[in-house]
Design a protein that fits this description.
The complex is a heterodimer of chains A (396) and B (253). By secondary structure, chain A is α+β, with helices and mostly antiparallel strands. Chain A is 53% helix and 15% strand. Chain A is globular. The two termini of chain A are 42 Å apart. Chain B contains seven helices and eleven strands. Chain B has a nine-stranded mixed beta sheet with strand order 9-8-7-10-6-1-4-5-11, sandwiched between helices. Chain B has a two-stranded antiparallel ribbon with strand order 2-3. The longest helix of chain B is centred in the N-terminal third of the chain and has 15 residues. The chains are: A alpha+beta (396), B alpha/beta (253). At the A-B interface, helix 2 of A face helix 2 and helix 6 of B. Chain A: InterPro entries: Acyl-CoA_DH_CS, Acyl-CoA_Oxase/DH_mid-dom, Acyl-CoA_Oxase/DH_mid-dom_sf, AcylCo_DH-like_C, AcylCo_DH/oxidase_C, AcylCoA_DH/ox_N, AcylCoA_DH/ox_N_sf, AcylCoA_DH/oxidase_NM_dom_sf.
């Protein structure tokens, strides 16, 4: 039953897994596209640590890179929840493709849409929805969780800025045509000097370093960036000077729901690969699924995934409803990344020896899930953030 | 060259494991995943391609059944059809619905909409009838190009390459005509997200078979549905003589 049908029947509180007709159609379309078109590329991209340009092209063609962008800029004009469903479906097949789509939609596109001047939107949004990938550059070698102690400087010279510094762990860097760089215009003001700059790929002095050789999410390029006296015009400041830290926090609050969706899809996709095996594999005269110990483990994991799904969907709906959602977003990201870790580990065990080989897909899910507890806010950061909210809740 | 009617049928998804109802009256459909019949997807794709090549102006997607079939029509709209027609059939009429009634509905609609082409899938994967296209053509007294693996419009004629038992047959037929799509005709596109959004604004008209003067009474009664017998193990023999001896022994020859 769709959300529209529920409303027509007067059901005021439909279950969380109720989608509008449009959301349902999008999810089904992306599910089909991912399972049929993307799946054949996954193994090779992982092995070669390289995202196939065909894959990126097809993401743009399907309208998956500009989900919330207004159709006037070539986007799909849909909602945040649709983005969440898309990321989940992509992650069931490949977490690297999902993260590319997630960063584009929840970080880059949102920043331009919310903060861009008419000229900036004109220049970038139509490219972001049709053929250009974006990267978000906050972290540095010396500042990860302690993001605002970043050292990249932007010095003003008349109508342009000269930016010097280096960034690390930048996703999509190999493919990006535009970089949103967080730099400090006034270190004496501490984090209140952090400003967001739009840096085009072909800017002189911008060097994209060699990508990391990673345990998982290998098809997603993660590179260091060197900014050597790069000149950025004043008109390329996104939003207001010194407000960059606010924008970063704001976007990351939303982005973490996207990561929750990625981890959720990853867990579900892995589970969907492992359970059929347990129904086929026979030992001691019966399916291994029929052993009580296996049934209990499988049911436990299924429950965790369901709980993770509800946390993720609810955080997304809260945000869409304009209600406070930060604590819930932290919970979703924290919980789903833990669930992904549990699920993938168990799935390998359920598949036994074959689960441990690269001939079967589960070992990749196991490697891919690990970053979930680390990026876009480590588990410890999520927990501390939640604790701050909980503390306030008892302030009477 | 203006309008093409495309039929889309909502069927149990091809990947689902089919189960027979305990009372053997049919197969279980409740709670089972349904999608557009794969051959209907190919038909929609062909119609949309003809429109993109500017041979036709409008593609109308038609489906017969209860409210759920509107999902199938929406998918057709998301693939590029311009508008939809939902012919409402439910309850006993829907259960007894077969190629003849559908053909009558399509024939009536083809006349009403002044269609130049009716494109259908060659068969549905649930009943495998492979009759609707042929019956529709007969009722309209139009030429038919069935099992099409290639369609080319040439002025007022259509060149159709047909997949037949002996290979490929190429025919040229005049329009208006009925075509049925075979597997290799094309590869259906995925509905892109922007097209799904656009599909929301496209219109789906509702009507009943009676509005088209069609009676839904079935001349066919399903007596019983059974699963195919479980495959029994075979027997391997060493020589041809053994094979002949065994075949003689069990009365086959």
């Amino acid at each position: 039953m769709s959300a529209e049908q529920a409303a027509a029947l007067g059901v005021s509180y439909p279950p969380l897994q109720t989608y509008s007709e449009e959301e349902g159609m999008m999810r089904d379309a992306v599910n089909k596209f991912a399972q049929e078109r993307l799946a054949p590329f996954v193994s090779k991209m992982d092995e070669n640590s390289l995202m196939d340009p065909e894959v990126i092209k097809s993401l743009f063609e399907q309208g998956l890179m500009g989900i919330e962008i207004d159709p006037e800029y070539g986007g799909t004009g849909s909602t945040f929840f649709s983005s969440i469903l898309v990321i989940e479906e992509l992650a069931k097949v490949d977490a690297s493709v999902a993260v590319l789509c997630d960063i584009q939609n929840t970080l880059i596109n949102t920043l331009f849409t919310k903060l861009g001047t008419a000229a900036q939107k004109e220049r970038y949004l139509s490219r972001l929805s049709t053929d250009m990938v974006g990267s978000f550059c906050l972290s540095e070698a010396e500042s990860g969780s302690d993001a605002f102690s970043l050292k990249t400087r932007a010095d003003k010279h008349g109508d342009y800025y000269v930016i010097n510094g280096s960034k690390m762990w930048i996703s999509n860097a190999e493919q990006a045509g535009v970089f949103l760089v967080m730099a400090n215009v006034d270190p004496s003001a501490g984090h209140r000097g952090i400003t967001c700059f739009i840096v085009d790929r072909d800017t002189e002095g911008l060097q994209i370093g060699k990508k990391e050789n990673k345990l998982g999410l290998r098809a997603s390029s993660t590179c260091p960036l060197n900014l050597d006296n790069i000149k950025v015009p004043e008109k390329n400041v996104l939003g207001q000077i010194g407000h960059g830290y606010k924008y970063a926090i704001g976007m990351l609050n939303e982005g973490r729901i996207g990561i929750a969706a990625q981890m959720l899809g990853l867990a579900q996709g892995c589970f969907d690969q492992a359970v059929p095996y347990t129904r086929q594999r026979v030992q001691f005269g019966k399916r291994i699924f029929d052993f009580q110990a296996m049934q209990h483990q499988i049911a436990h994991v299924a429950t965790q995934i369901e709980a993770a799904r509800l946390l993720t969907y609810n955080a997304a709906r809260l945000k869409e409803a304009g209600r406070p959602f930060i604590k819930e977003a932290c919970m979703a990201k924290y919980f789903t990344s833990e669930v992904a870790t549990l699920t993938t580990s168990k799935c390998i065990e359920w598949m036994g020896g074959v689960g441990f080989t690269k001939d079967y897909p589960v070992e990749k899910y196991y490697r891919d899930c690990k970053i979930g507890t680390i990026y876009e806010g480590t588990t410890n950061i999520q927990l501390s953030t939640m604790a701050k909210f909980i503390d306030k809740e008892y302030d009477h | 060259m203006s309008r093409v009617l495309v039929g889309v049928k909502r069927v149990i998804d091809y990947a689902v494991k089919i189960r027979v109802k305990p009372d053997h009256s049919g197969v279980v459909t409740d709670g089972v995943k349904h999608s557009m019949n794969p051959f209907c997807e190919i038909a929609v794709e062909e119609a949309v391609k003809l429109k993109e090549k500017k041979f036709i102006k409008e593609v109308v997607a038609v489906s017969c059944g209860p409210t759920q079939v509107t999902e199938t029509i929406r998918t057709a709209l998301a693939m590029g059809c311009d508008r939809g027609i939902h012919v409402e059939v439910s309850g006993k009429d829907y259960e007894a619905m077969g190629p003849l009634q559908i053909a009558k509905i399509f024939a009536a609609l083809a006349k009403k909409e002044e269609a130049s082409l009716v494109i259908l899938g060659k068969q549905a994967i649930d009943d495998d009838c492979n009759q609707t296209g042929q019956m529709t053509a007969a009722l309209l007294d139009w030429p038919q190009g069935t099992f099409a693996s290639e369609v080319t419009i040439d002025g007022e004629k259509v060149k159709v390459v047909r997949e037949i038992d002996g290979g490929l047959e190429t025919i040229k037929i005049s329009m208006p005509a009925v075509l049925t799509a075979d597997l290799r005709l094309n590869t259906p596109r995925y509905a892109t997200l922007p097209n799904i959004m656009k599909a929301k604004k496209k219109k789906i008209a509702n009507m009943k078979p009676a509005d088209l003067g069609v009676d839904m009474v079935s001349r066919v009664e399903v007596l019983r549905v059974d699963e195919p017998p479980t495959r029994l193990a075979g027997v391997k023999v060493e020589t041809v003589d053994d094979l002949v001896a065994k075949l003689k022994a069990n009365g086959t020859i």
